[in-house]
Structures are given as C-alpha cells and as structure tokens.
Amino acid sequence: MEIFGDMGELAAEKHVEYILSVEKKKDSFESVVMEHLRMNGAYWGLTTLDLLGKLHAVDVDQIVSWIIKCQHDSGGFGGNIGHDPHVLYTLSAVQVLALFDKLDVLDIEKVSTYVAGLQNEDGSFSGDMWGEIDTRFSYIAICCLSLLHRLDKINVENAVSYIVSCKNLDGGFGCMPGGESHAGQIFCCVGALAITGALHHIDKDLLGWWLCERQVKSGGLNGRPEKLPDVCYSWWVLSSLIMIDRVHWINKEKLVKYILDCQDLDNGGISDRPDDAVDVYHTYFGVAGLSLLEYTGLKAIDPAYALPVDVVNRIFIGRQSKKES
C-alpha cells in the first residue's frame, strides 16, 4: 500500500533479532519478570515471527516439548513448567501449537474438558480453580474450544447471554456486568461474539463511535477516555472495529505512523509509546496492528482468533477439505 511510503519503515529484521534474543537471555530483567507467564510470551513472540515470515528461525521440537511439560493432569497449561494451570496459558499453548500445525500432539478431549469445566451456571467462565470471573476468560475459553473444534462442550447460549449482560449504555463492554467499558474487554466480548456467530447483539454504530474516539492527536489509540495512547490498543481497538465493520472510521495512516514511531530502530522491538523501553508484548501488538492495517510485507492476521489467517484457514478449512478428498 503506497500510502505508507513516506512514514518510515518497519525494522522487520531488527524485530526478529530482538525476539530471538529475548529467549536466549534467561537472566535478563525481562526474562525474570516474565518467568510466570512465559507461555504468553512464547505466543506473542512466535506469532510476531510468523507475521514477519520468520517462524522457521526457531527450534519447533524444543518449543513443543517445553509446552507439553507445562501441561497438568487436569488438561490445563501453566505459564511455565511447575506453574499452576490457567485458561490464559491454555489458550496460548493451543495457539502456539496451531502456529506450528502441531495440535495433534494434544489430547484434545482432555484439554477441552479442562476449559469447559471452567464454565459457571450463569454462562460466565472462571480463569482457574480459584474462581475469578472475567469476560476475558469467556473469550479465551470460546476461542480455545473453537480452535479445538469442541465448542459443543459448553453451553454457548449461556456464554453469549453472560457476555451480552456485560454490555454498557455506551455500546462497550466491561469485565463483568456493570464494569466500565474498556478496549481490552471490548475485544474479548466482540471476539467471543464473532466466533459464536452472535455479533447481532452489538450496536455497531454506537460501539464503533466509542472505539474510534480512542484515537488521539498523535494517531495512537487509548483504551479508555482521557488515557494516554498505547501501541497495544492498535490491536484491541482495531480488531474490534474490523469485526464490527467500522475500521474506516479511524485515520489508518496516522496509526501506522504512531506504531512505527514506537520502534527501537537500533536494537529492535516496539514500545507502548515513542522512546519507552520495548518488550515482547508491545512488539507483538504493534506488528499485529500493522498486519490489520495491511502493512506491506506482513502476513494477514485474523481479528477474532489473533492468529495468522493461513493458520486459521488450515484449522477450519483444511480439515474439511481433507474430509472431502
């Protein structure tokens, strides 16, 4: 897309080097603070590499064997070896295995039974055995079970009703009924409704207006009114706008420029705001945001599943074509 020609460029090679280096620096501050959520870090880093066309730079067998060691007898996955299972890390494990086309290493029945077991009577989901409830967990469970072709293991109607009960007068969604609208929660609720074919519950114009109001002067997006912009909302806001078909309501060129301004051009990586320290989380969401914006040279990403479109197609279309042949 030529419109992005004069905005500076994505330092793709530097970002690849940065992601590969994070994994090697076991004693770095970033490694230590991420130790308990390494499974999420693996998903962010590896999906970024795939979007950049560089997934072949990693040792697949090594990563797959580490993922399997993070699984518990319950079927759920921990954030690292020896850490408690949680639906958050379980989805990341499934997503990483999907990237590598290795879902067949899983006992799918066991994993899906763990996730389905976290649904409560009102349709909501707990994150783990301790029972915290949040619409994030509704999305995570629905996304995970859908990728495993096991949505029939939960009460989808109740799950949708619970999410709809978290809808606010401004068109947005909160983490529970009555919770403040927040772009991250909106993504979770819109994504879950998209996957379950229930987007008709959303007032698309009202929500689209709330979301496009998140763009600030610099071109970046914030998560709530009066907050600073942050690269991660390039994903949360943009993917939601795409799913409800209102992405043309924001200035895409200014958002591209904002994301590119948050790059560390010397050492790679992307930060939340220009000149801040980079991390894997914002590197992923920056690249994923650029992918949604159809930035040249990046693979397309699916706004609901947060995986490259070719991976999602392999899971949902590939299986059918195998059955037909």
UniProtKB/TrEMBL annotation:
Q: How is the cofactor bound?
A: Binds 1 zinc ion per subunit.
Cofactor(s) needed, names only, are:
Zn(2+)
**Where in this chain does the record put each Prenyltransferase alpha-alpha toroid domain?**
10-306
What keywords appear on the UniProt entry?
Metal-binding, Prenyltransferase, Repeat, Transferase, Zinc
Reaction it catalyzes: geranylgeranyl diphosphate + L-cysteinyl-[protein] = S-geranylgeranyl-L-cysteinyl-[protein] + diphosphate
Q: Which InterPro entries match?
A: PGGT1B-like, Prenyltrans, Ptb1, Terpenoid_cyclase/PrenylTrfase
Q: Does the keyword Protein biosynthesis apply?
A: no
Family annotation (Pfam families): Prenyltrans
Q: Tell me if Repressor is a UniProt keyword of this record.
A: no
Which top EC class is named for this enzyme in its record? transferase
* Coiled coil location: none
Q: Record's superkingdom?
A: Eukaryota
The protein's GO terms of the molecular function aspect are: transferase activity
- Listed EC numbers: 2.5.1.60
UniProt xrefs under PANTHER family:
GERANYLGERANYL TRANSFERASE TYPE BETA SUBUNIT, GERANYLGERANYL TRANSFERASE TYPE-2 SUBUNIT BETA 1-RELATED
Family listed: Belongs to the protein prenyltransferase subunit beta family.
Function, as annotated, reads: Catalyzes the transfer of a geranylgeranyl moiety from geranylgeranyl diphosphate to both cysteines of proteins with the C-terminal sequence -XXCC, -XCXC and -CCXX.
**Name the record gives this protein:** Geranylgeranyl transferase type-2 subunit beta
- Biological source species: Ziziphus jujuba
**What is the phylogenetic placement of the source species in the record?**
Eukaryota, Viridiplantae, Streptophyta, Embryophyta, Tracheophyta
